[in-house]
Amino acid sequence: MAGYDDRDGFIWMDGALVNWRDAKVHLLTHALHYASSVFEGERCYNGKIFKSTEHSERLIKSGKLLDMDIPWSAAQIDAAKEEVLKANGLTDAYVRAIAFRGAGEEMGVASLGNPVRLGIACWTWGAYYGDAKFKGAKLDISKWKRPSPETIPSEAKAAGLYMICTMSKHAAMAKGCSDAMMYDYRGYVAEATGANIFFVKDGEVHTPKADCFLNGLTRQTVIGMLKDMQIKVHERHILPEELEGFEQCWLTGTAAEVTPVGEIGPWRFEVGELTRRVATEYEKLVRA
Prior knowledge:
This protein is of the alpha+beta class. The protein has seven helices and 15 strands.
């Protein structure tokens, strides 16, 4: 497949559709130098973006947390996503919306005079973890930790927060793993590099408390599903030594959807009945 900069199709930029190869920014774009950028990853199933408005609202919230007022409403962003899907003739796709500080009058850390820009692209994207969705992903344990919310706005889906995720995933892939699990700054289990994590023990579900990492929309959806199934969910701090006692594990995220985990470092997990049930019910929900 061609690189992401060399494809046919259209990308929505600042209110208009442009040819894919013409969707460019200047070298001195502030976001390229200072990570002043927020984004959303969404999936469209059978012509409908799952939780489209929630994603658009979170994009706007993320921008505000980074002192960027995005000059489009959630309704306008929703409409733009529909426009770019239609222009590319896609009904099952991944959708990426990104807001960022562009090039302008300032090129230092401060950039209030630079325009906030918005781009939206979409493309076909299969299972994020490949066949791990069926047999269970293999996770490394990252040396990097999710930072304290006193150091960076962890509620924002901000590009800068993913730098250590990229390094962690590269290290994991070098070891033959699909991804890496990260601890937080206190040493508790946090999440994978781009997905939240769940564990099962004695028929009950345990998931890290989202107090220093993004409380994913898929995470929230799955917690709601589990409660509807009358399955007890514990949102709490989880210590590393507890992993040995868990029986099942899965990841959640827009790209990951619901992906079972077979192993994390020295710990092994079965792709059990509850994991398969949650994955099946989630698939039914997003395609309803």
